[in-house]
Amino acid sequence: VAAAAGAVRIAHHQCASLVTDWGDAKKATALERNYKNREVVQQRREMLALLAPTQGERILDIGCGPGFVMLDMADAVGPSGCVEGVDPSGVMVELARMRLSNAPSSCSVCVGTVEALPFPDASFDAVVLCQVLLYVDDVPLALREARRVLRPHGRLLVCETDWDSLVVNTADKARFERIRQACSSTFVDAHLPPKLPGMLSRVSMPISEVRTVPMVSVGSPDSSGSSFVGNWAFKVVAEKGRAFGLAEEEVRAWLDEQRALAEDQAFFACVHRFLFLAHKQGSIDAPYPGLASHLFCCPPNETPPTVGALE
């Protein structure tokens, strides 16, 4: 145990180099499969219900990945609407373009970053940031950019995981904590959700609603990878643990325990994702008005200048 703890301390100083590079084609393809997990599908349903996009709206998906969320929103805004996506990974952009080739509304995807969005001010009725900010070094800058491209009273939907909320059935709590640290090492900030209300308040984006989405699996996850946390327990832990520097015997002991639990229908793992719906108000220097008690009405849609896809 002491040796394993030492390995964790050593590897902890290497975390910056472990943050996931979604420009890697293999990792991008694996993420695309992850979007089909049943918990992730339910999360997208919850996001769509909270954002409530309507016909004719123009929506931006920042860090759009392989385009699953964009496709859902394209159905909602219809032929008179427009959904645009931006992602720093050229691999993700190509995956999204293929997925959106027959979308029911106008869609375009370009390469770009959340810190410098390639769109004019006040271009969108709504902006979505799903599982993006935990990879970002300067979250306040990212939120200011999202606010900049929103129209007055436009909506911002943020979805982020708090890996400190992870709970599992295990007899070895100390080993589990080392595994949690290893799995958190691929993010810039794996404990971001509690900080977001303050960050949003400082950019005059009052929160109107917060929801949680449990990514949970119980009993015996099947081996097809259809469960997000099942895939995490049996595949991701091994990959991230070894990359982080956990001893091989630690990884094997974890896998043996979790497989035995699954065989006995005793597996349990859950981590929470948090959905924040905020609205653009006033100037960025205006005093924070506190949590809103209701949803704000968006003004009638206006058609802004079209921004072409950037290569």
Rounded mean pLDDT is 84
Order of helices and strands: HHHEHEHEEHEHHEHHE
Give the beta-strand count. 7
Q: State the helical fraction.
A: 25-40%
Spatial strand sequence of the major β-sheet: 3-2-1-4-5-7-6
Low-pLDDT runs of 5+ residues are 1-16, 285-311
Q: Work out the helix count.
A: 10
Separation, N- and C-terminal Cα atoms: 50 Å
Mind summarizing the main beta sheet?
A: 7 strands, mixed
Q: Rough shape?
A: globular
- Indicate the proportion of strand residues: 15-25%
Instruction: Determine the structural class based on helices, strands and strand pairing.
Output: alpha/beta
Radius of gyration: 20 Å
Overall description:
By secondary structure, this protein is α/β, with parallel strands linked by helices. It is built from 10 helices and 7 strands. α9 (228-244) runs antiparallel to α10. It is globular and about 55 Å long.
